[in-house]
Amino acid sequence: MSAPYARVALIGLGLIASSMAHAMRRAGMTAEIVGTARSAGTRAEAAEVGFCDRIVDTPEEAVAGADLVVLAVPVGAMGALAERIAPHLAPGATVTDVGSVKRHVVAEVSPHIPEGVHFIPGHPLAGTEHSGPRSGFAELFDNRWHLLIADEATDPQALDRLRAYWTDLGALVDMMDADHHDLVLAVTSHAPHLIAYTMVGVADDMRRVTDQEVIQYSAAGFRDFTRIAASDPTMWRDVFLTNKDATLEILGRFTEELFALQRAIRTGDGEMLFDYFTRTRAIRRGIIQAGQDTDAPDFGRTKTKR
Amino acid sequence: MSAPYARVALIGLGLIASSMAHAMRRAGMTAEIVGTARSAGTRAEAAEVGFCDRIVDTPEEAVAGADLVVLAVPVGAMGALAERIAPHLAPGATVTDVGSVKRHVVAEVSPHIPEGVHFIPGHPLAGTEHSGPRSGFAELFDNRWHLLIADEATDPQALDRLRAYWTDLGALVDMMDADHHDLVLAVTSHAPHLIAYTMVGVADDMRRVTDQEVIQYSAAGFRDFTRIAASDPTMWRDVFLTNKDATLEILGRFTEELFALQRAIRTGDGEMLFDYFTRTRAIRRGIIQAGQDTDAPDFGRTKTKR
């Protein structure tokens, strides 16, 4: 049994941090939750929603006396934040983060972590297209994977404690090294997001099809792309800039493959298209069997619409 | 007031046709529903579900005496089907279809339509990733657009009647010419589907990321692509082969745009990325305001999961 945390500092009060707070309450955790965010507006909103016990003005104040510090800011802001809080971290505390890119975070944050403080990066594979302190909800992590970045140097007790914490929030916890994490996420998340952003941008740019038509007739497939492409712009800018190599590698593969399919369309190779589409259908079945999506048609959206 | 149809022939008994039958029953239509499908297995399945009054073995039998004939087969099969049923169509009947491509269908079907029979092509912008006679449900068309292809030559009474029919099934009805339809759908549906198929194919092909990882960690964005890429392979093969020009045009624009974003990533142009992602976010808001999607986070999927 690992001891629960007594005081958790949430730095950054967006979708992930607010959902963590709600999920902690749901789990009956008694830890004091201290929150802070860079903008006074965000702090005021978070205070209104009321998911923190205390909201303070600076990260230095937030981390004082905390045994768990969660960096929940865009990936590009992690390094400077770590430098700022480092002198104020309590001995024995665990610092973790929730950034979507791990190699960059490790490189930027690790050098600032003082002796006697444990840094265990993490990434919850959960999110919605909404952002900000009002967007959080307790169920966000339920049955979703939380990836922790650990190696032989990681303190086993600190790791057990953080793992138990995330399990209590509803997540399934797995371990991975930072490089492999960034490649896997480039495939399952970063490249798909860039592609969705691109397609939505193309639709918006078309002179011969009106915006009104694109919006009105979006139910034919496009709207699923717009949901992805509605995600937080700052967060995603940072993801692409900090996971550049893996994202560009996957996009290169994607373009190759897209050209092969375009060629099949141009030359009328129906067999190639049919075989390709049959293969991709099987992957969907795997995801449903793994419990990572619902089998309800259209995500259950159609049935609940009326 | 246009007279309701007395006998409706559904040729092809997949998702769309079975949903039409369920929606007709829900609307209290008294028309006799006669169905047929090419494969005996499909006919047997449809008989088991029981959404037709009669199931017959051939399209010739199905159309006899029907005042509405619905061609609900893959786009590539429409021409041969029209040729086969032409001599058996009742005078004054309306023939429509539900294909995703319109110019090709008009070109293939029109020449076979006898004098005194009305051909009014149509396309319901509704669907799910499921297919077959068991996948239909009455709510599929609710609040979704149904596009009818009509011009000055179209009989106004026949058009009113078909429009009223689709309105009663729950749809919003709009008119469009075939070429413009194919371009709009290339943007909102055909290109997005090809892109989703491609991305899922790339993930499946990656040697350095296992299938298990792709499936397990799909919730980070990828699973929305797999839903789209799980759609019926035959239907989609035909869509791409018959809407070749518009699809290739949009894919060309998409590739251009993707290269511009890749370049911004490579050169570290964060401002360009941020501006782009901010613009695409606004389109999502338009779609929600137009009632074509839910604002619930993650399509409401997360909340109903547990």
Shape of chain A: globular
Quaternary state of the chains? homodimer
CATH class bucket of the largest domain in chain A: Alpha Beta
Give the ordered list of helices and strands of chain A.
EHEHEHEHEHEEEHEHHHHHHH
Quick one: which chains have the greatest interface? Answer: A-B, 112 and 112 residues
CATH topology group of the largest domain in chain A? Rossmann fold
* CATH homology-level superfamily of the largest domain in chain A: NAD(P)-binding Rossmann-like Domain
The radius of gyration computed from the alpha-carbon positions of chain A, rounded to a whole number of angstroms, is 21 Å
- Mean pLDDT of chain A, rounded to whole units? 92
Task: Describe the 3D structure.
The structure is a homodimer of 306-residue chains. Chain A is of the alpha/beta class and 306 residues long. Chain A folds into two domains: 7-176, NAD(P)-binding Rossmann-like Domain (Rossmann fold, 3-Layer(aba) Sandwich), CATH 3.40.50; 180-294, 6-phosphogluconate dehydrogenase C-terminal like domain (6-phosphogluconate dehydrogenase C-terminal fold), CATH 1.10.3660.10. In chain A, 51% of the residues lie in helices and 11% in strands. The first copy, chain A, has a six-stranded parallel β-sheet, sandwiched between helices. Chain A has a three-stranded mixed β-sheet with strand order 7-8-9. In chain A, helix 1 (15-26) links the parallel strand 1 and strand 2 (32-36). In chain A, helix 7 (178-205) crosses helix 9 and helix 7 packs across helix 11 (244-267). Chain A starts with 6 loop residues before the first strand and ends with a helix. The model of chain A is unreliable at 302-306 (pLDDT under 50). At the A-B interface, helix 7, helix 8, helix 9, helix 10 and helix 11 of A face helix 7, helix 8, helix 9, helix 10 and helix 11 of B.
